[in-house]
Write a structure and sequence with these properties.
heterodimer, A: Immunoglobulin-like, 4-stranded antiparallel sheet, 3-stranded antiparallel sheet, B: mainly beta, Immunoglobulin-like, 1 helix, 8 strands
Amino acid sequence: MASNNDVSSNSGSASLRERRTGNTETPLRPPVDIREDSESITLCADMPGVAKADLELRIEANTLIVEGKAHLELPENAEALYADVHAGSYRRAFALSSELDTDKIEANLKDGVLTVRIPKRGKLRPRRIEIQTV
Amino acid sequence: MSAFSPSVPDSPFEELWRLQQQVDELFSAWSAPAGSIRSLPRGSFPAVNISHTPERVDVFLFAPGIDPKTLDISIQQNLLTVAGRRDIPADARATYYRQERFSGDFRRVIALPEDVDPQRVSARYLNGIVQIGVERLEAARPRQIEIH
């Protein structure tokens, strides 16, 4: 993230952290809810500060990768006074399984919450198995 | 942060990541000056960043997925209070693998610098971030003193 957007970079107490991590900041790992129903798996991730244009969602070798850059509307010459959040980007990856139809993923970003719905392939949706009684 | 943490890591990397977090926490506790008496433990919702310039102080609350109309923002002298609620309805028919996102009531009290003007506060909500801007009193701003 550009230094002028990073509230934490000017913090006087951050010197040790900066020395340890240099310029390569560790992206934040967004908290997620993951649920499954008979039709699909749905993932919700908290990514506050991310606009649609700064969000990237991709599938690599059956892994879903979620990345985003957060933006704060800082006034010019702003300096950090306090920071819970020390990074300006998010990243998290999820290994998918073969019954999920990655061609039909739907994603939606609203108020900093990313919702991704991954449908199951039609023929793999659960069938109820009747138990025969003698 | 999480309602319940999974006891079994889903990959060795996750375990490493947790270790990294713990190390980070240790280091930040060591390097940070005394914490504010009102500061909350790491991972509390919503996270807060505060920036300042000679003219104003801006508070950023990382509060994704809330209805800004339900937010209760008030300021008394230099104490800013933000209260609200984030409801994440659970789907009873679904199987949950992870429920890490905060759900419920939240409240944060933030001590701002003493020279803020409680009469001049503005707030907005964009991409899940509540930004509250408070102007500083004119008298407290640095002035250029001219030499004649």
